[in-house]
Amino acid sequence: MADALPWDPEKTYDTADELVSFEGKSYKQQQWSTNKRPDIYSGIGMPWVLAAAHPSAKEDL
């Protein structure tokens, strides 16, 4: 899996399958979004889907 850049609330995410990191987890973009926090707006029909926990994350999925 490619390295995920930190999520930026001011960026428009419009590239399919773009990866971001947020609070120790990786999220993959499913649809266009701006200022939609990956931890809140993830799941079916949402802009983001949980991709994986970073190895440095302290909590398990």
Provide an overview of this structure.
This protein is mainly beta. Helices cover 0% and strands 34% of the residues. The protein has strands at 5-6, 12-13, 19-22, 25-29, 33-34, 48-53. It has a four-stranded mixed beta sheet with strand order 1-3-4-6, with no helix packed on it. A two-stranded antiparallel ribbon has the order 2-5. The protein is globular and about 20 Å long.
The proportion of residues forming helix, as a percent range, comes to under 10%
How many β-strands, per DSSP? Answer: 6
- What coarse outline follows from CA principal-axis ratios? globular
- Estimate what percentage of residues fall within beta strands: 25-35%
Measured between the Cα atoms of the first and last residue, the distance is: 17 Å
Largest sheet: 4 strands, mixed
Q: Please state the CA-atom Rg, rounded to the nearest Å.
A: 11 Å
Helical stretch count?
Answer: 0
Task: Give the spatial strand order of the biggest sheet.
Answer: 1-3-4-6
Structural class: mainly beta
* Helix-strand string: EEEEEE
Let me know the average pLDDT: 85
| Poorly predicted segments | 56-61
